[in-house]
Amino acid sequence: MQEATLYQFELCPFCHKVRAALDVKGIPYRTVEVNPMTKKELPELDANVKRKVPVLAIDDTLLSDSTEILKYLDSKPSPMPEGPARDKAEMIEAWVDDDLAQVLPAAIYGTWRDAARAARVVARTSNFGFFHNAMVRGGGSVIMNRVAKKILARRGGGNPDQMLATEMDKFEGWLGEQAFVCGDEVSVGDLAAQGCLTCIRDFPAFTTIMERPRVAAWYQRVQDLRDANRVVSAELS
Ligand SMILES: N[C@@H](CCC(=O)N[C@@H](CS)C(=O)NCC(=O)O)C(=O)O
Which residue of 23, 110, 123, 214 lies most exposed, with the fewest beta carbons within 10 A? Predict the structure, then answer.
């Protein structure tokens, strides 16, 4: 199978959704870290496509938007459930975009100290050279803190940790006692949610989420599937 290329930001929850799907589908891929300040690593995109990550180069086409990419990858052969479970899986995939991925930045960049830490993670896991790394560390924390404030304002203010807890309560309800959100088989809902959460694994908010035993067991179950099926490890595992 031809190797796919994922253009990503290390701390982008949408990119991590795509990585989870590529892993579980056993599709070989490499990652290219895009400099969030310049985005010069991104390939030429159609004029009507926003220059955002993720962008996936696969099967001689360029795909953007994580939901579209997951749909495309879902059309590849199993392991994915078919039938009525798909509605629930797609509802959860949409929740990841509309709610979980929205509150995560607020929870990890909420204070200046957290924002600086996030920018350090990006700079550390990237290879933009000394000058650009410094720029990402400095400029990145300003941008990230601004993103967090915007999200909070859009969602009516409040405590970001509490917002995240409320979202995770919903997820825990959907998961129930099942192995995966739709039952015994992994679905696009699991990939989107687990992938999205891997993006904050270096942050205290992740430790708090993993204090929920059923969520922690589910997270590890999906991770085990990713590890078992991944064909080529990404540069940044
Ligand atoms: N709906 C898109 C959202 C993608 C998105 O917002 N990506 C952010 C990073 S998390 C981005 O590229 N931001 C850069 C920019 O807006 O200039 C998806 O699901 O892929």
Answer: 214
Domain 4-74 top-level CATH class: alpha beta
Residue 155, judged by CB atoms within 10 A of its CB (0-12, 13-18, 19+), counts as: middle
pTM of the model: 0.81
Q: What is the pLDDT of residue 237?
A: 39
Q: Which residues lie closer than 8 Å to 150 by C-beta, 6 or more apart?
A: none
d(CA 30, CA 7): 9
Q: Decide: 225 and 190 in contact? Cβ < 8 Å.
A: no
Of ligand 1's atoms, which has the minimum distance to the CA of residue 97? 19
Ligand 1 first shell, C-beta below 6 A:
9, 12, 14, 52-54, 65-67, 97
Architecture per CATH, 85-229: Up-down Bundle (1.20)
Angstrom distances, CA of residue 171 to CA of 73, 98, 185, 207, 217: 23, 13, 17, 16, 13
The 8-class DSSP code of residue 37 comes to T
pLDDT band at 142 (very low <50, low <70, confident <90, very high): confident
